[in-house]
Description:
Elements: H1 16-22, H2 31-39, H3 46-72, H4 90-107, H5 111-128, H6 138-162, H7 172-192, H8 197-202, H9 208-239, H10 242-268, H11 275-300
Helix pairs in contact: 2-6, 2-11, 3-4, 3-5, 4-5, 5-6, 6-7, 6-9, 7-9, 9-10, 10-11
Amino acid sequence: MSVSKEHxxxxxxxxxxxxxxxxxxxxxxxxxVFCFGISQATxxxxxxxxxxxxxxxxxxxxxxxxxxxxxxxxxxxxGGLKNPPPVTRKLYYASIVMDxxxxxxxxxxxxxxxxxxxxxxxxxxxxxxxxxxxxxxxxISWAVIAFFQGGYTFMLANMVAEHNVHxxxxxxxxxxxxxxxxxxxxxxxPLTQIYQHKEDSSRGxxxxxxxxxxxxxxxxxxxxxxxxxGILLYYFSAYSSVLHFFIFSGCLAPxxxxxxxxxxxxxxxxxxxxYAHVMTMNKISAACMVxxxxxxxVMNHMPVVCRFDNF
Length: 311
């Protein structure tokens, strides 16, 4: 697919097609890890937390989305966009603007946070950039996405919320949370690829979902979820309250009901492993997990210990 070489200026960079490729609403699907991170913070620097949320969800995530669109040049449905507009050179420049803006915004919370976020940006680019293209390596790409969108994002959110960017942060409690976040993303990520096997493989991107197959992807996701739930049961029992695990289980019940129904329908007809089901699964899962970790956040910080020392 050819890429348009129209005249590009700051005045026409963010046109309607470019804004659609940002897929800003898709950031909601990654919000649960952020909520998990701040819910487990011992205290919350509210200013830093809000600023970091803006930098990550309104700039960095959309910047990664639009860069991935530019590199992949998808013509079929992609996450959060059923009918993507044509890819133009504008997407490349828009991704740079979004990344720089996100890092500048994050700098308001401290240069250490900005550097840690820059590492995330670098790996998100390596995932899509054709010079490296981690995406074409099924297991490496899965590990990178699972860690950076999971454990690494938990680390960033929790460090920023606590104003604690130090090696001392890496205690057993936080490492367990990083593992859980990595497993949750690692389990859900292959499901997002389940309808793209043909288009991904046509570009030479043999994703982990492609390797596992449709049924294998469902089973893999279930195993990852069960393992992460087991670790969460231990974590909540050891570090807070087993009640938090029951809240987690209750909030995730609708997710499991939909997942099992979808799994069953797909066993009967593989055509059900499609974009519509993936997006519905993402919406239900994200909404339920955001509710879950928001409840736990309120329980852990009532009254909330918020600080505005550096505002």
